[in-house]
């Protein structure tokens, strides 16, 4: 659940608190407990879900999150061989100490020696995870879980999907989704099929407890849809009307049942990679992608973001290298300032955060740094 602590002159996630806590040898959570109420009347909080208009936090503390894929190395390592946080329980405690209040799961497996065993994708495992979340003041906002690949649905896939939703309800997830695009195809016909599939799955999810079903994007989802022009040997279109794949998907899916999680890094990669298309008449047209322009007309379809930063690298095919949040070149201040609604949950993600045997604590260190940088964004 979101924090119900009284307002303070400096939110516990601010750099000033971090420095004080470290000087005292306290975690953010311990520092908060020690100082609750000291300055309760010193500041007026922003309206729920909205950043303060006077230079206050651009992302409220209760909205700052992390997807656990970023710290997957810590979750999966053997607690019997290290003193570092290992397994879900200890990693959730560490993330709470850093200051995060929201997490997004990326599956429910951990090392077999961690408390609860290897696989927590069960009713009993979900109850255990929920207890650990509650104990640490954390709220799970989403999970990259099971989305049936087969279509039409087989009975076994439908049964598994419903079990996934049952686990989501135990965890209190408002959202459940996948780390993959609706389809990897460039063709309109395949996106039509994907839209039918996601509409039916989204309807099932909402009926099973109100869970919002979301699809995550990578760069290819913002490439141009092949929907026109002369057909190829298989009768498939070879040219584009200029609409991008995921933008088309948004126009043909019901906003009540199908939601999206924009990975802001991959959206910027798409901006770098997909600038031209071949029009129906054979001419080459230029259209530079603007990620925020996709979000602004229908913000409530984007309840979650992956806040993944990138450093510009002209020598890379993607145009960017992944780095800790706040250390790259993606203008997150401008991105979040452009949004009217504050209901979004930015989830810090960094695919390459694990440091391996050379630096086994790196992913949690990057999480700490990224949380500080997320906290420092100002309206």
From TrEMBL:
Name of the protein: Sugar phosphate isomerase/epimerase
**GO MF, one annotated term:** isomerase activity
| Secretion signal, residue range per the UniProt entry | none
Which species is listed as the source? Answer: Actinomadura vinacea
Domain (Xylose isomerase-like TIM barrel): residue spans on this chain: 92-341
Q: Where on the tree of life does the source sit, at the highest rank?
A: Bacteria
Mind telling me which Pfam families this protein's record contains? AP_endonuc_2
Q: Which SUPFAM superfamilies match?
A: Xylose isomerase-like
Question: Matching PROSITE patterns, A to Z?
Answer: TAT
InterPro entries reported in the protein's UniProt record: IolE/XylAMocC-like, TAT_signal, Xyl_isomerase-like_sf, Xyl_isomerase-like_TIM-brl
